[in-house]
Specification:
Elements (H helix, E strand, L loop, with lengths): L4 H14 L5 H15 L3 H9 L3 H12 L22 H4 L3 H11 L1 E2 L8 E2 L3 H10 L6 H10 L19 H17 L4 E6 L3 E2 L31 E9 L4 E7 L5 H19 L5 E6 L10 H14 L2 E6 L17 E5 L9
Parallel strand pairs: 3-7, 7-8
Antiparallel strand pairs: 1-2, 3-5, 4-5, 5-6, 8-9
Helix pairs in contact: 1-3, 2-3, 2-4, 3-4, 7-8, 10-11
Length: 347
């Protein structure tokens, strides 16, 4: 029986409906039953209508003719045991051991620590394996590494340097000072300089919503020009109000700039939020514009305290630490107080 184009079109429509609901073996078996029903020329016609190869359709036709049920195979299997291309490690004895040795040679990190990593990329590993006589793709290498619990990870900043024996006491002291101020209804702020940014069409991390195919166009290099302006953000976090304030300037991150940011916060928000305040606690790190040894900073804080009429207490964090205002507890090297007028005792 001749199979015309109209018949193949009907078959193609049926296959398009059924294909999403069948796995590989069910699809093969279904194609075989249709080919057997068509008789002579059915395998070629079904192959053209379904897009499958004639080999696949012929295999399904044989299974259907032999009466092989779909459940003849193990549950979850689409092929008989042993069917399909063998894995690279099975076809090439010694591949897994050679790969393990190669990864061991490229391992970095403390051997006593579970945190280790490889300095070799998948391409490097594939090339070195080829030089050793093994043929394996990057996908195969990635699969074997995942099976051995390797994963692609960035470095985690979790290891701390040498700690002072009084570190816990410093934590408790700063926490107690913050708690005392908050209980008294006095303002507590955490200050810190932020990353400097160049103004203009320069690349920045992050994403923004744009129409498809219309990304924000920036320079291909980030080299600043002579007229490029660099902004310096300085952040102030009001712990009790859970609000942030950022002062942005174009000068350097100096002590005068940092204290002026506190002054702006007090003028714009602090004095309105705490009209009856008599004291202010400032927490900050011990480096840069917030250095505990900077005389200019102390001078500017004294001027601010006199202008605002606030007993200003400053708690500095030790090197290697930074503020954590959300929790309100981090270690400090100690506290200093600047009084608005002589004779006013520090708390």
């Amino acid at each position: 029986m001749a199979i015309g184009e109209a018949d193949e079109a009907v078959l193609a429509a049926k296959f398009a409906v059924m294909r999403p609901f069948l796995d590989e073996r069910g699809w093969r078996f279904y194609l075989g039953t249709e080919a057997n029903a068509l008789g002579y020329g059915g395998i070629a016609a079904v192959a053209r209508a379904s897009g499958a190869s004639e080999t696949t359709v012929a295999a399904g036709a044989r299974d259907a003719a032999a009466g092989e049920a779909l459940n003849a195979l193990e549950p979850g299997r689409s092929r008989r045991p042993g069917a399909g291309r063998p894995r690279a490690e099975d076809a090439q004895p010694g591949l897994k051991g050679t790969l393990d040795g190669l990864l061991e040679d490229g391992k970095r990190g403390d051997p006593m620590s579970p945190v280790t990593w490889s300095v070799l990329s998948l391409g490097d590993i594939a090339r070195q394996m080829a030089l050793l006589g093994f043929s394996c793709s990057r996908d195969t290498i990635a699969r074997l590494m995942h099976e051995d619990h390797w994963s692609l990870q960035g470095m985690a900043k979790v290891l701390e340097g040498k700690q002072h024996e009084d570190r816990d006491g410093q934590f408790r002291h700063i926490s107690a000072r913050i708690g005392w101020y908050l209980a008294a209804g006095e303002p507590v702020i955490s200050t810190d300089g932020k990353k400097k940014e160049k103004l203009g069409a320069y690349h920045r991390d992050g994403k923004s919503w744009q129409r498809q195919g219309e990304p924000v166009q920036v320079r291909d290099h980030d080299f600043p020009e002579k007229d490029t302006v660099t902004i310096v953000p300085y952040g102030i976090y009001d712990i009790a109000a859970n609000r942030g304030f950022v002062s942005v300037g174009t000068s350097g991150d100096t002590a005068a700039f940092a204290v002026n940011a506190i002054r702006l916060w007090w003028q714009e928000e602090g004095s309105l939020r705490y009209p009856g305040a008599t004291r202010l606690l400032v927490t900050c790190d011990s480096g840069g514009s917030s250095s505990a040894r900077c005389r200019l900073r102390k001078d500017q804080l004294a001027r601010f305290a006199g202008q605002a009429g606030l007993m200003t207490e400053v708690c500095h964090f030790p090197p290697g630490t930074c503020p954590a205002p959300a929790r309100g507890t981090r270690s400090g090297t100690g506290c200093s107080a600047t009084s608005p007028a002589p004779g006013v005792p520090a708390p």
